[in-house]
């Protein structure tokens, strides 16, 4: 549905040139919710603005629904943009217009008949749950309600793709949840493909099917939500995943415990494989697993858990316990088999 092929974008500033995107290639499939996550300055905004050519790439091709946007003249591009809705962190509503007019004005400018405009405004205000706020002005709405109006305005164009530029970053956690639920509904009920950028891993965790991680103008890792959580490869991806979990253990505790067995991180997507497997470990081997910290979160379609566990026992037994856990689909990290040999276990 969206394809970026070797897209680059260079800005020339007084201080010199900035390569905001460096040969970025990305494929978003029809019907999916695709998230691009990265820290500030990674190039996310530039990337999403290149999709509808709000920002024209310096090099490469952008194709949406089979049409190469980078090859279109401005008239045709204007037509294609109607199929690409966009929502923003700051909502971008007209302050002096009512909710109704914020949605209706683009249609009036395009000469759409009044009755058709009315039908669309009604339909999409109902979808976002604001059918009773026609006459309100943006200043009379909460942040979440403003974003709902912005979403209704984007949907009223009946786009095939919705671009979301940090749409929940200005909202409190509870309101964020309701907007994420709305995006899920839009994707599910209307079948709209969503490409979103965010710096918040909880957004990715809740609604994305696939994820790309950006750093320094490049995509450093791409994968399904499950791959990104269970087997992150790049350091930045690991940091984002860990941001949803525990704080590091106190050094003094680590030093105290490591003499009597390794401290490992266990991760699993099937909750039946986490704690029950640990119970079996203590039965089958001469190892006493002690959970130091743990958390289970809900990914879009499955639970995902992470536990930090001290495996108290001798080297031979803890090695067997680790193998047993891995055989049961539990990912075990932070343990180096060679370390076992040198460990003096009490
Ligand atoms: N119009 C511009 N002129 C010059 N440099 C720009 C422009 N827009 C972005 N940049 C630079 O490009 C790089 C990527 O910026 P971009 O806004 O795309 O990152 P981001 O990941 O969206 O970060 P943030 O979340 O802070 O917005 C940064 O170094 C930024 O300073």
Automatic annotation (TrEMBL):
Keywords, comma-separated and alphabetical: Amino-acid transport, ATP-binding, Cell membrane, Membrane, Nucleotide-binding, Translocase, Transport
GO MF assignments: ATP binding; ATP hydrolysis activity
UniProt cross-references to SUPFAM superfamilies, sorted A to Z: ACT-like (SSF55021), P-loop containing nucleoside triphosphate hydrolases (SSF52540)
UniProt GO BP: amino acid transport
UniProt entry tagged with the keyword ATP-binding: yes
Domain ABC transporter: 2-241
GO terms for cellular component: plasma membrane
InterPro entries in UniProt: AAA+_ATPase, ABC_transporter-like_ATP-bd, ABC_transporter-like_CS, ACT-like_dom_sf, MetN_ABC, MetN_ABC_transporter-like, NIL_domain, P-loop_NTPase
Record SMART domains: AAA (SM00382), NIL (SM00930)
Family in the record: Belongs to the ABC transporter superfamily.
Protein name, entry field: Methionine import ATP-binding protein MetN 1
Lineage: Bacteria, Bacillati, Bacillota, Bacilli, Bacillales
Gene that produces this protein: metN1
């Amino acid at each position: 549905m969206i394809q970026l092929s070797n897209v680059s974008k260079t800005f020339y500033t007084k201080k010199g040139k900035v390569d905001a995107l460096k040969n970025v290639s990305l494929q978003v499939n029809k019907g999916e919710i695709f998230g691009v996550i990265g820290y500030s300055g990674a190039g996310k905004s530039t990337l999403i603005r290149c999709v509808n050519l709000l920002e024209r790439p310096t090099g490469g091709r952008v194709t949406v629904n089979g049409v190469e946007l980078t090859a279109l003249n401005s008239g045709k591009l204007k037509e294609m943009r109607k199929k690409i809705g966009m929502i923003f962190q700051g909502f971008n509503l007209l302050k002096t217009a009512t909710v109704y007019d914020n949605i209706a004005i683009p249609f009036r400018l395009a000469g759409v008949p009044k009755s058709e405009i009315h039908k669309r405004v009604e339909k999409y205000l109902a979808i976002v749950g604001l059918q009773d706020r026609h006459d309100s002005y943006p200043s009379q709405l909460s942040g979440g309600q403003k974003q709902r109006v912005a979403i209704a305005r984007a949907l009223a164009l009946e786009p095939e793709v919705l671009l979301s530029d940090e749409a929940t970053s200005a909202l409190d956690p509870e309101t964020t949840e309701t907007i994420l639920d709305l995006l899920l509904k839009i994707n599910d009920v209307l079948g709209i493909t969503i490409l979103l950028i965010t710096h918040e891993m909880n957004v990715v965790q809740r609604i994305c099917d696939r994820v790309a991680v950006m750093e320094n103008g490049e995509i450093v890792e791409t994968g399904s939500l499950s791959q990104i959580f269970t087997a992150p490869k790049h350091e930045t991806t690991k940091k984002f995943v860990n941001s949803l979990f525990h704080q590091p253990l106190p050094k003094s505790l680590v030093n105290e415990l490591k003499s009597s067995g390794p401290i490992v991180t266990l991760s699993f997507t099937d909750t039946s494989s986490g704690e029950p497997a640990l119970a079996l470990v203590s039965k089958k081997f001469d190892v006493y697993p002690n959970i130091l910290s743990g958390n289970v979160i809900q990914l879009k379609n499955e639970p995902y858990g992470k536990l930090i566990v001290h495996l108290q026992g001798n080297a031979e037994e803890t090695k067997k316990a680790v193998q047993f856990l891995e055989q049961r689909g539990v990912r075990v990290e932070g343990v180096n088999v060679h370390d076992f040999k040198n460990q003096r276990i009490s």
